[in-house]
Amino acid sequence: MTDVAPDPFRNEKALRRLKKRRAADARFRLYGLSAIAFALLALSVLVASIGFQAISAATYHKLRFDIVLDPAVIAPKGNDTPAEISRNVDGFYTLIRSNLEATFPEADEDRMASRQLGELVTRLAVLPTAKWVAENPTQIGQTATIKVPLNDDLDLYLKGAVSKEFRLRLGDISAVAETAPRQVLLTGAGAFKALESLIAVQRQEVGDAVDARSTLVSSGTAMGRVTSLSTDTLEMTLLTGSASDFRTGRPMARMIALPESQRNVSDLQIAWTLALKDMGRISRVPHTSLLTHTDSTYPELAGALAAIVGSLLTMMVTAFIAIPIGIFASVYLEEFAPRNRLTEIIEVNINNLAAVPSIVFGLLGAAVFLGFFGLPRSAPLVGGLVLALLTLPTIIIASRAALKSVPPSIRAAALGVGASKMQSVFHHVLPVAGPGIFTGAILGMARALGETAPLLLIGMVAFVADVPTGPTDESTALPVLVYSWSTNAERAWEPMTAAVIVILLLFLVTMNGIVVLLRRRFERRW
């Protein structure tokens, strides 16, 4: 029986090396999975934070008015043409204010209250109604139902975004007395014990600052501000409604955590808004005007339509210039250009241009297209030219990579059957490289769609109230609109900005989806 020779690769030293290699492979796999998990987590947090803010802008509150379209107010003699009616914002706003004043007569008590009542609705909110009446003059003199957006601050209040509130239902009320004008005394055995306990708890947490908070009590369409409180009695100043409204049912108490002096909405406005909601005149509806209106200085009236159209026009100009030039340049450099010093310099500069900051292209566009050629400022034409310069290096590099991936046998076979160099490239090489070329082109366009700095430098940050009809009209773009709205001070712009970001992301996802479909549909593996 012969002895088996020992395996030289199964000694202790080799086994230790093998164990180390396997441990390194496992660590590398763990590092890769950790990197993917971290990227997905960061993306999820980003999408969740934007989406959470954008949800608020998906709906908004509208206030309904049933008013008579008085011709003496909206179409006085001498100003009764459709053009004059559509511009008569003050007349339509007067009808709305008169309706509010009739609903809440207490607003006539002082000038401040009257001003606050008028702020429930923005003056320009009636502009769509004025245009509708101008197009339908037979409605003049008739009773019409109009719905206008609620003031943005009150809209946020109804969505719970203004201040934290503590709400509780009070006990049964046994007696209601009006001790003085607008002063009401409610009595009930132990009816206010829970409210008194809530105030005591808040006093322990925030100290005497709780006394600056507003404690409001409502019943139906009536509401008052608490001035004194005990377990069995509650005295308040009536803000709206009448004392008799508190005789039935169990009133609702709400303590607003933010003092009135630190809010953009007053207690009176809150009382009127909740009363209108109780009347069924306020409804929460989808915010479709975000896609159908143009920009405005008022958040509740603003929309992104002009920016959407401006972005589409800009992308059209960019695509018509960058894609053909980029593809033909890459074909020439890869298939026809001689390999010499000049082509090497061109290739190096193309690679360098791909890394140049986008703001440099904006400076170039401002100096050349606006300063030298005198093209119109804030126009999609100029924006498209600048973004075409920005996108060209990306498209050329991606297209050359796609052409290099085509096996040399394709070229050799075409030339071997008698095809010319031009025929072999355009009839055989380009169709095979097509998916990769158009993938690079769309990715370059997606990058251009999200650029902001170049457009800012050529003036596309301008306020645009009309939808552009052509590439030479004044316009803005979605990234610039995001920048513009995010710098506004009012809190209502935050969800609006997030909503526009979602719209921009939908455009980008759509473009990237087209890339995936093209690659899966036409890509060939060798």
Question: What does it look like?
Answer:
This protein has helices spanning 12-57, 71-74, 82-87, 89-103, 111-118, 127-135, 152-158, 193-206, 267-278, 289-292, 305-336, 341-353, 358-372, 380-404, 408-416, 421-449, 453-457, 478-486, 493-522; strands at 59-68, 143-149, 165-169, 175-180, 183-187, 214-219, 222-229, 233-240, 252-256, 282-286. Helix 11 (305-336) packs antiparallel against helix 16. A seven-stranded antiparallel sheet has the order 3-9-6-7-8-5-4. Strands 2-1-10 form a three-stranded antiparallel sheet. The protein is built from 19 helices and ten strands. The model has no long low-confidence stretch (mean pLDDT 88). 56% of the residues lie in helices and 12% in strands. The protein has three domains: 61-149, no CATH class; 163-263, Beta Barrel (Thrombin, subunit H); 305-522, MetI-like (MetI-like fold, Orthogonal Bundle).
